[in-house]
Amino acid sequence: MTDILRPEISALHAYHVPPASGFLKLDAMENPYDLPAELQAELGRRLATAPINRYPDPQGSGIKAGLKTALAIPDGFEVLLGNGSDEIIQLLAMLVMKPGATILSVEPSFVMYKMIATFCGLNYVGVPLDADDFSLDLDATLAAIQQHQPALVFLAYPNNPTGNAFDAKAIETIIEAAPGLVVVDEAYHAFAEDSFFSRLSRYPNLVVMRTLSKLGLAGLRLGFIVGSSQWITELDKLRLPYNINVLTQVATELALEHIDVLNGQAETLKLERASLFGALNALPGVTAFPSQANFILARVPDATRVFNELKTRKILIKNLHGGAKVLDNCLRFTVGRPEDNAVVIAALKEILQ
Ligand SMILES: *Cc1c(COP(=O)(O)O)cnc(C)c1O
Do 275 and 166 share a structural domain? Predict the structure, then answer.
């Protein structure tokens, strides 16, 4: 086996998802709310008659039409659908995987940028964020772009796992300086204030990626990217036929017809985020960082102990300690329903007293 395997793949571990059965699950930025009962019933009716004996619409035209209205995709740009935005990150990497090509992002950020760079045999450069507030280090980023000439730059806006949205002017400067394509990853757009959709027409080397996962449809696996037809046409050549299955197409179309329901849930979560932020910061020794996403990063006195104590109490969050130095003793809490957040805060009070 070792003769034929790529050493960089042998050295990897498969993406680990911890078992969560019986847990209050606050580790993966899922929307905690169900669809209203009437919508669930309508979903059941539509799925019952979905033509699963046929291959799906290869273009996902119904979803694209729904996205255009529900999410205000700017006119004059094309959309490509992915089996989650993870698949689109992979397509982007495949698009540029010449020997020696580089993907650049910031650290810490979404782990799939680096993982997929490795899968595709690309160089990866991660420019450290400011250690105090996780803002972009613009000078260091521009210097790294100059030095490494990345084919692709990924910027999560807002960023995961830090929750902040980088300075938009700094991102614009990066787009202007980048020799290749810049992907602004707006996975958390529903909880944020700004979007780069409005800047697409200004920058030919900009594409904006989004997902419905954090908005409440994580189980459907539907991500998309918006850009000029030049980029989308090339990406579409790499997309496997029928990557969006029939059931996902039917369910997503229905959800997009009722986007106000999902947007309403996101608004509720934004309010909950504010109370969770206040409650975390009021705990002894805890510093919560401001967030424009549906999660909050917080530094605690001993993250691994707190994480394990929460786990004993059947509460699952994300422990970021042991990775990037700037995340020492940091935990990431997905914003839940008021009652979920109350359980977490009560447990933390016990653990930290
Ligand atoms: C969750 C997340 C994604 C992946 O979303 P899927 O569409 O579920 O694959 C992409 N980017 C960032 C920054 C994320 O946090």
Answer: no
Nearest CA to ligand 1 atom 11: 187
Whether residues 12 and 144 share a domain: the answer is no
- The response to whether residue 86 sits with its C-beta less than 6 Å from ligand 1 reads yes
Asked if residue 202 and residue 59 are part of one domain, the reply reads yes
DSSP 8-class letter at 67: H
- Phi, psi for residue 188 in degrees, rounded to 5: -105, 20
With a 6 A CB cut-off, is 225 part of the ligand 1 pocket? Answer: no
Question: In this predicted model, what pLDDT tens digit does every residue of 43-70 receive, in sequence order?
Answer: 999 999 999 999 999 999 999 999 999 9
Q: Is 213 in the pocket of ligand 1 (CB under 6 A)?
A: yes
Burial track 81-110 (b if 16+ CB lie within 10 A, e otherwise): bbbbbbbbbbbbbbbbbeeebbbbbbbbbb
- List pLDDT tens digits, range 294-335: 999 999 999 999 999 999 999 999 999 999 999 999 999 999
Last residue of a domain, one of 259, 287, 305: 259
Angle at 90 between CA 56 and CA 9, to 5 degrees: 125
Decide: 211 in ligand 1 pocket, CB within 6 A: yes
Owning domain of residue 286: 7-35+260-352
